[in-house]
Amino acid sequence: MFRKASSQIFRQVVRYSSTDPSLILERSINRVQLLGRVGQDPVMRQVEGRNPVTIFSLATNEMWRSGEGEMSQSQGSGDVSQKTTWHRVSVFKPGLRDVAYQYVKKGSRILVEGKLDYGEYVDKNQVRRQATTIIADNIIFSATTIEIGLEFALLCLARGSLK
Fold first, then answer.
1. 48 occurs within a structural domain
2. pLDDT digits (tens, 9 = 90+) for 57-81
3. How far is Cα of residue 46 from the mean position of the Cα atoms in its chain?
4. If we measure between CA atoms, which residue out of 32, 31, 38 comes closest to residue 110?
């Protein structure tokens, strides 16, 4: 046990004190938080030999006022402009994947936490495409979504269909 611990410490010292780029490990951050509305009901896909994945789209909005100078949104002058950005969200974590598939619905307001992933695929016309995906680590439902779920559960309990 002492030998294993000392070898791990030795490797860390070599990594951090070495000038060889292949031995130096740096910490980095790839984190995303998106608060928006779901654009479509989730679909679950499974490619042969791989774990299933739940996929849905999420819309985020950016609003600003045009006009002279910077104005707060409470002021009445200037036109309000809005831009909607669509994000593709993929959920691979087994428990979260199933919850997302069952409870995320079109129009729901949710917070997605995860990381950015860039990849390539070949479409049905054999054209190589690039895709940006949010790999979800956590999904937080807004209060209204939770309230709807609780109301549904209470309704099921009242009918005796939920035990």
1. yes
2. 999 999 888 765 554 455 556 788 8
3. 19
4. 38
Residue 87 lies in a domain: yes
Pair 109, 36: CB distance under 8 Å = yes
pLDDT band at residue 18 using 50, 70 and 90 as cut-offs: low
pLDDT digits (tens, 9 = 90+) for 21-53: 666 677 899 999 999 999 999 999 987 878 899
Mean pLDDT value across residues 92-109? 93
42: three-class secondary structure by DSSP: coil
84 contacts 110 by C-beta, under 8 angstroms? no
Tokens 């779920």 sit at which residue?
A: 149
What SS3 class is residue 150? helix
Segments forming the whole domain that contains residue 147: 27-62+79-159
Residues 6+ apart with CB under 8 A from 136: 89, 90, 91, 93, 96, 100, 112, 113, 114
Please indicate, yes or no, whether the overall pTM of this predicted structure exceeds 0.70.
no
Distance CA 52, CA 100 (A): 12
Question: What is the rounded distance in angstroms from the CA atom of residue 109 to the CA atom of residue 142?
Answer: 6
Q: Decide if 98 contacts 62 (C-beta within 8 A).
A: no
Dist CA 148 CA 156 (whole Å):
12
